[in-house]
Amino acid sequence: MNLRKYLIPTLHVLVWIIIYFLPDLLFEAPSGPVFMVKRNLHFILVLFFFYLNYFILVPRLLLHKKQWLFSLAILFALIFTYYVNDFVMQKTRTKFAVETINTTGTKPLPWAEKRHERHRRAGNAGAVVMVLMSFFVSTITRETEAWYHQEKERKELEKQQLLSELSFLKSQVNPHFLFNSLNGIYALAIKKSDKTPDAILQLSELMRHMLYESDKEQVDLEKETAYLENYIQLQKLRLPPEVQIHFQAEGNLSGKKIAPMLFIPFIENAFKHGVDTNGGNIQIKLQVKENRLSFDMMNRISKAQNKDTVSGIGLANVRKRLDLLYSGRYHLEIKESNGNFIVHLHLNLEA
Q: How many degrees, rounded to 5, is the angle at CA 215 between CA 214 and CA 218?
């Protein structure tokens, strides 16, 4: 059962019951048939115009930028209230005045007639003020509800756009990674290296991780670290011994979560632009202290690469994903110094 479906109507009914009996709760309300007619009439007018405004005038006029028609409708409602209240109360008072004359045989005195006239005008004005207040409250209520629903829809749309963008960014990572890995295995196959079967097996392990883990919003940091180690081992198979590669993971990785495939573009970039026939040097360190993660990487920039090729789609991709997933919770510094390409990434793992 959808309780929310019945919650709002029930709340409306309770509020109207409280409003109706509020005079009895706050002070000793006058009694008598004239007062009861007046009280019930005002309540009916307020109730009628509240929901007329709530269900029709605000959604069809005000929210559609038809302010003049909305104002005109309120003006007609107030005029209607004034004359309906005046007519009903006049008829009521006349009826009871006639009954009084028939019963007692006396007519109201002139001063009583003047007091009645003042009360009549005050009652009409009071009815207009109460209806005007009902318009005000119903307008605020309906506009607030409309804003709430619009805000909810906007956030849902933003969420869908975010998910679509993240999905697109991750889809860029996987083919890029696969392309580079296959190139490495192809190089081994050309050389007829005995390492080729091991490289294929290593690639299958990496693809299994990408297939089952990369579509998740967050993965275990331990699994992501193991994935990086496997990728590095795969790259080592095709590289000469002159290439120095050091990967180090420190701290307690257990129980920590992270968005998948964040670090691999940096490491891919290091192997692509930091290794040549003369060798290479790649230093990678991942450190966790409490809920702070640091990823530091340095690689020599190959002389065969020009500066424009060092920062490609992979690094721009990472920046975009960090903005979307860790906004305000990360610091990324990428620079070149003394022929080295350096990356410092600091993440707050807690949202």
A: 75
